[in-house]
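G., before I forget:
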Amino acid sequence: MKYIALFIISLIFWLLLTFSLTTSNIIVGIVAALATTILFGKFFVTSIYKFLQPQRYFWFIVYLIIFIWECLKANIEVAYRVLHPAMPIKPGIVKIKTDLKTDIAKTTLANSITMTPGTITVDIIDDYIYVHWIYISTDDPEEYSDKVSGRFEKYIKKIFE
Amino acid sequence: MIDYLNILLYVQIALCVFCLYRIIRGPSIADRMVGIDIFGILVVGICAILTITTKRSYILDIGIAWIILSFIGTLTLAKYLSGKKLNE
Amino acid sequence: MEIIGFILICVGILFNLFGCIGLIRLPDVYNRLQSATKCVTLGTCSILLGVLFFCGFAGAGVRALIALPLLFLSATVAAHALVKGAYIFGIKLGDKSVKDDYKDVIKS
């Protein structure tokens, strides 16, 4: 089942990349997608039925809008810290607990943490995420895990679990 | 409009000099690798602006290939830093 | 349409400039990577969106639309790999750092 899904996704990617619908182009695309499927099919996500549930796409769009807004704020904040003459930075590595279970949900959370205000993911070990933060504003573990990952975690849970 | 875009292209090329400074001067090996990573992303921006000014769309294909190659190169160097063999 | 694209490209190059200034000014590897991943990646994404507005939904525009998520995912994963590799290699955090929870995990 997951092999068929990967085949369709790679064929659509090839058709978008070349952007022409001649017969020879489609034949080359089918051969390339088949080779990709045979070589890398076993690394694809396992629970494929989640692609067919439409409410996940709705939550994905809501998540995307929030994510782009946070990205813009992150950019402006980091630019302010860079351009300020005294450079008001207070860096360090903090440890944050997460409730997500599946691998792809953890990967998405780590990627979104990397792209938002002054934080970058160093490592994931079991349930804990280690985050390098450019300006540690509080010392309380509850408060900063809510500040770093609380905004995204509820949406990611609705999308991937 | 095209003239202004040419000026922006020169600005983007001048930004690469900052990365070269970091690659040459960087005190440790990790600093140099950060410079190389950023250099790869800046080249994609140059490809994107060249696509508009010359009106040839195959230049953006070079940009896509450059994204993937710079990604693989950075991963290989990072694996070397953490002291592993390449097939682990 | 061309005006919107031109403004997007200008904003992107401004963010690239901030990122490169951060690459020169900030004190240690981890902070440099902060400014580099965020400012430069988002700036280049903005330039690619500008190309999409300039060329319309054909030829170069669709390619820019494909390059955008590829750039986003590859830049974030490369940043993770660089940070972890630099820490295992033994590069210390800078003098201004206030906290380090990761040290205990690596030792054991």
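The helical segments of chain A are 2-18, 23-40, 54-83, 103-114, 141-160. Residues 71 and 116 of chain A are 5 Å apart (CA to CA).

More on Monday.
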